[in-house]
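STRUCTURE:
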């Protein structure tokens, strides 16, 4: 009965959405013929890793600058031309200011008021408020907090050599990113490697776990029928999660206000912003990795002051973005870097030589300056993000009508209306041999000073592009580098008999994951 009902609902949905099938073809755009029910089924049932769906959409019409496709049930215009990507994400940004939001406004306040989901002027105001929290000087201050967590990781394996023989590294790095988020975003200290079931870690996992058939189905139904979900009161996130994080933020704010406590973390910065005592020094958040960068001053945000009052819920929502954007994603970057280093001992050896020689200058101390002196480390990180772009694709929503002019002989002008969605298939671009010869090869030399200059602009997009790019890129890179440096000074990352090589990507979830885990060993350096 249940399956019959689901089938009936999907059939009715497909009937009403029949028009969508030819959405792009009707606008004169090349588009593959699809069966919508099957498109939905593919995503819910996950017949292959999500990255491969994105790569397929990129490879569909290799000689076209763009083509029509679907994401879930939504028609999207897939871009594969660098000029067009620049046009839409930078030059004509005013027409494409928003990200696609799968949870409609008003249904989940802790999600819809975070920076990723905010739209239009509300987004501009919040981005202006948050940008100073991610500048070099703030990263330097937060580095101290991150570094404490990284030291705990390597100390743990020094003290427990029996555990270091075979480690599920994704679990390890998820615990580390949890502790970094706890201290940098929420002002809470925890050690999730020692206290494996601490409440903060369990809640973070619960908040960010979108894996599995039922969760995928809930996500799809939520996207299709948000109003129905709102009316019947089923929230997207577990109530326990929102209650827990709301309480932490409220208690922390109260305690700090009563005791006049200052700490270099996100809660403090937002409390300062709320008081209107925000310091707008140094507002350009230029990325260290990721070439397609725009100074935020170009969109006139520095001068803007926060118009609406910042509520406790706003503060909770921004702190929570660290979980949604920086828990799983950064841990995935770390684990894939560890995977590539274990598989390429010559690269690992060269990296360790660089680490040793830089740290010698800094008396063995892993400082912010020392990390930023490690050039090869930056090349290895960049190549990991090239081969494994953690954000597999990115999108923009058209907010003002726009026409893409015809350039090639087989094109017609394409008029986009408000609500049309643009998709940039980053994984497909990063694996295209036209831009990255022998794309399956892990080769940090692609990012040496000379070769880096030859990478086509807007074809290296690990952190997106333009004013809506990743605000947390510096934070993510720093926390990744510091933990790997801490480990590599003491250990070699080695393949064990449990290591899965080559990696078999999991078919569930929207991230790179391994069905059988990422098992590697840490072997004490001679
Ligand atoms: C390896 C880790 C990470 C990767 C690969 C990544 C990648 C991305 C990408 C591709 C986007 C969309 C950019 C665009 O549309 O142009 C994005 C947006 C965003 N990311 Fe990250 N991210 C990472 C970690 C983080 C962390 C640690 C934070 C912590 C705050 C963060 C916060 C955000 C926010 C708030 C946005 C939305 C920005 C806006 O709409 O203004 N990300 N990220």
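SEQUENCE:
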């Amino acid at each position: 009965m249940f399956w019959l009902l689901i089938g009936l609902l999907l059939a009715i949905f497909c009937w009403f959405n029949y028009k969508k099938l030819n959405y792009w073809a009707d606008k004169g755009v090349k588009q593959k013929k699809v069966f919508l029910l099957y498109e939905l089924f593919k995503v819910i049932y996950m017949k292959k890793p999500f990255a491969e769906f994105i790569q397929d959409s990129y490879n569909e019409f290799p000689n076209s600058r763009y083509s029509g496709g679907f994401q879930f049930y939504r028609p999207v215009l897939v871009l594969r031309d660098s000029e067009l990507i620049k046009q839409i994400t930078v030059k004509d940004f005013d027409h494409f200011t928003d990200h696609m939001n799968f949870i409609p406004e008003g249904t989940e306040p802790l999600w819809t008021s975070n920076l990723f989901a905010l739209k239009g002027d509300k987004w501009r105001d919040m981005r202006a408020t948050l940008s100073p929290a991610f500048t070099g000087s703030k990263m330097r201050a937060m580095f101290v907090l991150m570094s404490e967590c990284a030291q705990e990781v390597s100390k743990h394996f020094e003290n427990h050599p029996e555990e270091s023989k075979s480690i599920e590294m994704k679990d390890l790095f998820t615990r580390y990113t949890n502790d970094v988020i706890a201290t940098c975003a929420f002002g809470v200290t925890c050690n999730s490697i020692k206290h494996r079931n601490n409440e903060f870690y369990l809640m973070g996992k619960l908040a960010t776990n979108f894996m599995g058939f039922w969760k995928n189905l809930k996500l799809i139904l939520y996207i299709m029928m948000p109003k129905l979900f709102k009316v019947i009161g089923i929230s997207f996130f577990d109530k326990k999660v929102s209650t827990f994080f709301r309480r932490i933020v409220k208690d922390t704010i109260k305690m700090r206000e009563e005791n006049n406590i200052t700490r270099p973390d996100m809660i403090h910065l937002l409390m300062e912003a709320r008081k209107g005592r925000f310091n707008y020094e140094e507002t350009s958040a230029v990325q260290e990795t990721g070439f397609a960068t725009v100074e935020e001053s170009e969109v006139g945000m520095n001068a803007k002051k926060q118009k609406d009052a910042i509520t406790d819920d706003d503060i909770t929502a921004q702190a929570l973005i660290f979980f949604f954007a920086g828990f799983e994603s950064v841990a995935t970057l770390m684990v894939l870097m560890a995977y590539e280093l274990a598989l390429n001992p010559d690269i690992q050896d060269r990296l360790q030589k660089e680490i040793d020689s830089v740290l010698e200058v800094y008396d063995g101390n892993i400082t912010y300056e020392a990390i930023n002196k490690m050039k090869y480390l930056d090349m290895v990180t960049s190549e990991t993000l090239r081969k494994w772009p953690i954000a597999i694709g990115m999108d923009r929503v058209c907010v003002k009508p726009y026409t893409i002019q015809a350039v090639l002989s087989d094109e017609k002008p394409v008029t986009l209306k408000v609500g049309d969605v643009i998709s940039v298939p980053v994984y497909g671009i990063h694996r295209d041999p036209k831009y990255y010869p022998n794309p399956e090869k892990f080769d940090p030399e692609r990012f040496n000073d000379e070769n880096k200059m030859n990478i086509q602009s807007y074809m290296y997009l690990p952190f997106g592009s333009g004013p809506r790019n990743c605000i947390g890129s510096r934070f993510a890179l720093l926390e990744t580098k510091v933990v790997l440096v801490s480990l590599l000074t003491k250990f070699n990352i080695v393949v064990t008999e449990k290591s899965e090589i080559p990696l078999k990507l999991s078919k569930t979830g929207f991230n790179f994951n391994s069905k059988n885990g990422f098992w590697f060993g840490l072997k004490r350096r001679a």
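REMARK: The radius of gyration is 23 Å.
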